[in-house]
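assembly run, all chains below
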Amino acid sequence: MTTKFSEGVVAESKRNYIKKLALQGTRIDGRGFDEVRPIKIKTGFIKRADGSALVELGDTKVLVGVKIEPGEPFPDTPNMGIMTTNVELVPLASPTFEPGPPSEEAIELARVVDRGIRESHAIDLEKLVIEEGEKVWVVFIDMHVLDYHGNLFDACGIAALAALNDAIVPAERFEVGEDFKLPMNHYPVPVTFAKIGEWIVADPNLDEESIAKARLTVTTSEEGKINAMQKGLYGTFTYEEVKKVINRSLSIGQKVREQILGGADGEEN
Amino acid sequence: MMGMKSDIKLIDDNGLRIDGRLPNQLRPIKMEVGVVKRANGSAYIEWGGNKIMAAVYGPREAYPKHVQESDRAIIRARYNMAAFSVDERKRPGPDRRSVELSKVISEALTSVVFVEKFPRTAIDVYIEVLQADAGTRVAGITAASLALAHAGIPMRDLVVGCAAGKVDGVVVLDLNKEEDNFGEADVPMAILPRTGEIALLQMDGDLTYEELTNAMEMAMDAAREIYKMEIETLKSAYRGDDDDN
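ok done. output:
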C-alpha cells in the first residue's frame, strides 16, 4: 500500500482548469479526447536481453526486456512454452514509488498486460517446445518503469509487444538448435481511458490520471477481437460509456499497432 | 482460457450446458446474513458450488496511520481462498491473483459506500472463499455488499456481481468450473442495479464486440435478479424470519 500511482493532491485550480478545457473539447496538453501522446519505440536497446524495447509514451518511459530460457513445462500443458510477466515500479521513476516487494499497483499492471498477451495467444507457445513434456522455452517479460507521467498500462503493453516482436529465441546459446525469431500470432494493444467529470479521455497523462474518477483499459487485437478489459478506481461507468470506450479502443489500438509494427523493424521510430 | 484444450463437449446437441442449464440460466443461489457474530456485519453465499463467507469490521480508526484519508474512509477488501477450496491445495496467503482481486473489489465497494461520512477510518471487508467453483470474485463481492448492508454502513445501493462468458462458441451466463477452465472467455462484472452503473468490469478471452456486449447484457440482467434476492435476504433478516438473527 506504500506505492501510489496518484501524485496526491492536484491543486483545485488545475482540476477546474482540466474540466473547463474538457467542456471546450480539449485537454491540458492540447490533445483531442482520442489522441494518444507521441510514441517513440527503440527496439534492441538491451543487447544482453533476447528482445527489448524502450518506449516513450509522452513523458512516460518504460523499458521491457525479454529473456528466454529452457525450463520445464506445466504438467497440464506439456506441449506448450511458458510466458510470465512482471512489472517493477522502481523508485527512480516517481517520488511516489518506494522500494520493496511489488505493490498491488505493480501486480495489477503486470496481470493486465499478461492477460492481453496470453488471451490473444500473441506468442505462439506451441512452437516453443524443445522436448515434449520435458523441456520448453520460458519467455520472461520484465517491465521496468523508468519515468512515470501517467498511463503505465498502455506504455507497458506497447513496450512488451515491441520487445516480444524484437525477440530471438537463443537456441544456440543453450545448444538446442539454431536461433529463431520468437513466433508471434497476434498483436494485442491496450488502450486506457480515464473518466474526468463526464468526459472520457484516452491515454491520460499524470494530471488527468490524478483527478480521474474511473479508469478502463481495453486490449484488442489486429482482428478486431477484444482480449482483455480492466476497470479501475473508485468511480463507475454506464453501460453506454463502456460500449463507446470499446469502440474507441478498437480504432485507437489499430493506429498504435501500426506504429509498433512499423517501428520494430528499424532501430528507432 | 489458460490455453488448455479439451475434448469435453460443453454444449450438447440440445443447446444445454454440461450441468443441464440453458445459456442464460444462473446456478442456484442461496444467501444469508448474520453468520459471523463477532463481526459488525456478515453474510454467507452459496452460488453453484461456491461457498463464500464475508464479514465487515468497522468503520474503525485506520492503522497504520499513514493509510488514513483525511476526508473519507478507506475500504480494504481482502479476497482469500482457503487452502482446501480448490482441487489442488492452494498455498495459504496472498498470491498475485488475490492481490489483484482484492484491489478491484475494494475499488468497486468504495464506489457505493458513503465513505465521506467516516474520515480517517477503515472499513475492513474480509471475503473467505471456502469452496470454489468459478465466479468466486462476483459471488464474493455480492456477499461483501450484503455484509456491508448488514453492518448498517450507509450505501448508495447494493453491489451485485455476476459473470458471463463464452463456451463452445456460445455466449453463456455464470460459468461453472469446467466452463471456466475450458471456455473461451470470461467477463466478471458488478453493477449498482438502481442506476445500472458498472463498478467492476474485467474480461479475458477472445470475443467480438457483439459477443462481448451480449455477455455484458446477460450478466447485468442476471445481476438485477440477484439484487432481488439480496433485498429479500436483508428484509427477512430484519423481520426475524431466521431465528438466529
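The domain at 29-239 of chain B is CATH 3.30.230.70 (Ribosomal Protein S5; domain 2).

Residues 209-239 of chain B form the longest helix (31 residues).

not gonna interpret more than that til we talk
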